[in-house]
């Protein structure tokens, strides 16, 4: 379950005792103590999320962050962390395009959701008619496409050579 409050994204665990808040490049983990939440840790992840999108599941949190590999086939889009802020792994194939700026822009437009009942992380990117599901270990489980999807039209405007 992920909710947006002002400029923050947060994910909570099903037991309701812990939440993770993403404040752009910093993440805060809180734990319920009777009627309040106490700060447990604050981290600056190795691969921070520019869009702040995250989800939580099974004592880990997952966030969208474009990670460059040494080859395009090694680029990843999902980062997995422990509640202590330790990076576990990265997985998920991002949109690949000749211009390296496009995959980063598309990563910023990617939403993520966790389903602890099925141990599945799902991602969908604006302007791309597909949703992809991964296991909590990063294995590709499924991908669905939306054949009737109509993306926004973006036109390039050139005036006097600019």
Describe the structure.
The protein has about 160 residues and is mainly beta. The protein has one domain (about 1-145): TolB, C-terminal domain (Neuraminidase), CATH 2.120.10.30. Helices cover about 5% and strands about 50% of the residues. The chain is built from 1 helix and 13 strands, in the order βββββββββαββββ. The protein has one helix spanning about 100-110, and strands at about 1-5, 10, 20-25, 25-35, 35-45, 55, 60-65, 75-80, 85-90, 110-115, 120-125, 130-135, 140-145. A 5-stranded antiparallel sheet has the order 1-2-3-4-5, with no helix packed on it. It starts with a strand and ends in a 17-residue tail after the last strand. The model is unreliable at about 1-10 (pLDDT under 50).
Topology:
Elements: E1 2-5, E2 8-12, E3 18-23, E4 26-33, E5 36-43, E6 54-57, E7 60-67, E8 76-82, E9 87-91, H1 101-108, E10 110-115, E11 120-125, E12 130-135, E13 140-145
Antiparallel strand pairs: 1-2, 2-3, 3-4, 4-5, 6-7, 7-8, 8-9, 10-11, 11-12, 12-13
Which range best describes the helical content: under 10%, 10-25%, 25-40%, 40-55%, 55-70% or over 70%?
A: under 10%
CATH superfamily grouping: TolB, C-terminal domain
Q: Regions with pLDDT < 50 over 5+ consecutive residues?
A: 2-10
Under the CATH scheme, which architecture would be assigned?
A: 6 Propeller
